[in-house]
Amino acid sequence: MDTLEKQRSFIEKLVKSNNKFKGNEDLLEDFCSEAYKRSHSLLENSNIEEIGSYLSKVTNTAILTVLKENGRVRRRNDKYVSTKEILMNPVPAKTETEATETSSKTVAVTGGSFVYEIADPRDSFEEKIVRKDLLQKIVDIVLVAQKNHPTKEFLKIFYLRYVKEMKQREISQFMNISQSEVSKRLIEISQIVKTHF
Asked: Which residues contact 7 (CB under 8 A, 6 or more apart)?
């Protein structure tokens, strides 16, 4: 078996042993190609067995990249979730925007004789959409709370605190109510939001 075939076979074995492969078998070629692209320079200069655990991590990153590009996973709360997962929304968001393109930029950092791929810390387009969707759901919940308790001015307090980023003391002066009342209402808002998530 020649070296290239041996590398291909090893990467394919790593892909098939990854738990994200199950249910996504139709993307085998894409997974292998992406993993090879990310590791080929390392494969040229090292013995496969010596870098097996590192290649396993590279393969996992490659699989996540392909799944994101194919719209099968999304990042939510610092982890990836399947887009097939059905989430219950007690208060519907006004609109939902779909990500049409994702970018997976990486920065290479050298450590010893290996090159590690690190995810770009800047927010991806998809993460901004997820964050916007989450914010819209929170605003919808606060709007419902405002309708149920109009005298408490939840929406105004929410806006001043989280959009204008005013301190509780500033809000109390602006709205002419005590700071402890502002604090109580912010706690009420957070409890209402938590019960709807």
From this structure: 36, 40, 43, 48
pLDDT tens digits, residue range 117-154?
444 445 455 565 666 777 788 888 999 999 999 999 99
174 alpha-carbon distance from chain centroid: 36
Only one residue has tokens 């997974």, namely 31
Least confident of 42-56, 86-100, 151-165: 86-100
**Pairing mode, strands 106-111 and 79-82:** unpaired
Question: Please, what is the end-to-end C-alpha distance for the chain in angstroms?
Answer: 55
What token pair was written down for 39? Answer: 């590791």
Residue 153 in 3-state DSSP?
A: coil
What percent of the chain is modeled with pLDDT above 90? 19
Helix axes 52-69, 3-17, angle to 10 degrees: 70
Q: How far apart, in Å, are the Cα atoms of 6 and each of 20, 33, 40, 50, 78? A: 23, 14, 12, 14, 35
Residue 163 has pLDDT above 90, yes or no: no
What span, in angstroms and rounded, lies between the C-alpha atoms of 97 and 125? 11
- Give the containing element (helix H, strand E) for 76: strand 73-76
Alpha-carbon distances of 33 from 54, 121, 161, rounded to whole Å: 17, 24, 48
